[in-house]
Specification:
With 219 residues, this protein is mostly helical. The protein folds into two domains: 23-70, Arc Repressor Mutant, subunit A; 77-217, Tetracycline Repressor, domain 2, CATH 1.10.357.10. Helices cover 73% and strands 0% of the residues. The protein has eleven helices and no strands. The chain has helices at residues 4-7, 25-49, 52-59, 63-69, 73-93, 101-118, 120-131, 138-161, 170-186, 188-194, 201-217. The radius of gyration is 24 Å and the shape is globular.
Amino acid sequence: MYNACKSGTSEKNPLPEKTQKKPSRIQQRNRRLILDAALEVFSRHGFRGATLDQIAAEAGLSKPNILYYFDGKEDIHLTLLSQLMENWLDPLVEMNPAGDPVKEILAYVQRKLDMARELPRESRLFAGEILQGAPRIRPELEHHLKPLFDEKCALIARWVDEGRLPPLDPRHLIFSIWATTQHYADFESQVSLLMDAADDTYASAARHLETMFTRLLTA
């Protein structure tokens, strides 16, 4: 008869649950394919307009295959937004309290413009979520963006009080930076239509924004 004591198991001491295996290379590759395809579909059609069939077609996988890795469209969307948030906050995190105020803010403008150039689909994904009222990402905004935003506004306000910047509202300054940099990603089709094809849009944008914000910050 099997001796439960010798084996170290009994009804009172069941076997420990198996640890989850590390995803195989194929599983990792398929998850990347799905997320990249979903990013394309969501940035093009928005959350409401996107379907699992569209994501499957973009990824070159079957719909059942998509559902093997994710519970559904909302699960994929939340995964993308969660991955995006850290990258989205990094440029603001890098604003150095010990640095020169004008240089630090101009560097932030450039980082946001670089992000618009390098991550246009991510920018449109984020914009689409915000336009819907942030139903899925609001907790992230409340617990991560809001404290960081308040911290950097307090820093800019201190620079103003110290006479290192002219009088200005830090909140509207940051809103203006977001509006003038993310515009190039969120309205890319309009920008490309209106700009001369021979122009380097982001290079000329960088020069314009540096001039504009330098005048504002040194007025």
